[in-house]
């Protein structure tokens, strides 16, 4: 094994197989987060500009059907921005549960090894408990960072929903001026 992977190998040995699962969930969570940043900065802004151009190109902006169409267009665009939120929330909620699973399986291993040994060594028990709690710490840390990103994304979506309505109204005013 390459030298630079040695600390990672020791971490997996210390935390068990559940730590690998938490790492995979974390990679998926942060990949979705990066995808959302990319989508917001590139794709969403282009789609927003196209929507504003399509709205201002319409001759009718005041009728009930025009306002309903505008609302449908904006909801569809915001829905695309909101699309991965349930998955992000699921992965955030899954991380602490996986950490708890790692702790429980680690504690079972600790008690099993203590039952097999003739002497009850406090030092080995403390070491086993420390190893068993590592997945919980990791799961909670990933969940906290994921929760921060998810709440920030929800805030951005709410702000963009309001801004999109404001921009559509301003674009119509500017085109009539």
Topology, pairings included?
Layout: H1 6-15, H2 17-57, H3 64-82, H4 85-116, H5 122-176
Helix pairs in contact: 1-2, 2-3, 2-4, 2-5, 3-5, 4-5
Family: Belongs to the exbB/tolQ family.
Membrane topology: Multi-pass membrane protein
Subcellular location: Cell membrane; Membrane
Describe the 3D structure.
InterPro entries: ExbB/TolQ_transport, MotA_ExbB_proton_chnl. The protein is an all-alpha fold. Helix content is 89%, strand content 0%. It has 5 helices and no strands. The protein has helices at residues 6-15, 17-57, 64-82, 85-116, 122-176. Helix 2 (17-57) packs antiparallel against helix 3 (64-82), helix 3 (64-82) packs antiparallel against helix 5 (122-176) and helix 4 (85-116) packs antiparallel against helix 5. The longest helix is centred in the C-terminal third of the chain and has 55 residues, at 122-176.
Summarize the structure.
Keywords: Cell membrane, Membrane, Protein transport, Transmembrane, Transmembrane helix, Transport. The chain is an all-alpha fold and 177 residues long.
């Amino acid at each position: 094994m390459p030298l630079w992977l040695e600390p990672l190998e020791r971490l997996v040995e210390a935390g068990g197989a559940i730590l690998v699962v938490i790492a995979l969930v974390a990679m998926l969570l942060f990949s979705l987060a990066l995808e959302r940043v990319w989508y917001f900065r590139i794709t969403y802004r282009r789609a927003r500009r196209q929507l504003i151009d399509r709205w201002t190109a319409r001759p009718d902006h005041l009728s009930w059907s025009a306002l309903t169409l505008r609302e449908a267009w904006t909801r569809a665009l915001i829905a695309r921005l909101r699309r991965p939120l349930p998955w992000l929330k699921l992965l955030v909620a899954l991380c602490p549960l996986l950490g708890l699973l790692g702790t429980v399986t680690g504690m079972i291993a600790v008690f099993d090894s203590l039952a097999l040994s003739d002497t009850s060594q406090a030092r080995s028990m403390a070491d086993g408990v420390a190893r068993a709690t590592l997945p919980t710490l990791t799961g909670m840390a990933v969940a906290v960072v994921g929760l921060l990103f998810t709440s920030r994304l929800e805030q951005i979506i709410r702000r963009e929903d309001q801004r999109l309505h404001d921009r559509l109204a301003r674009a119509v005013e500017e085109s009539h001026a």
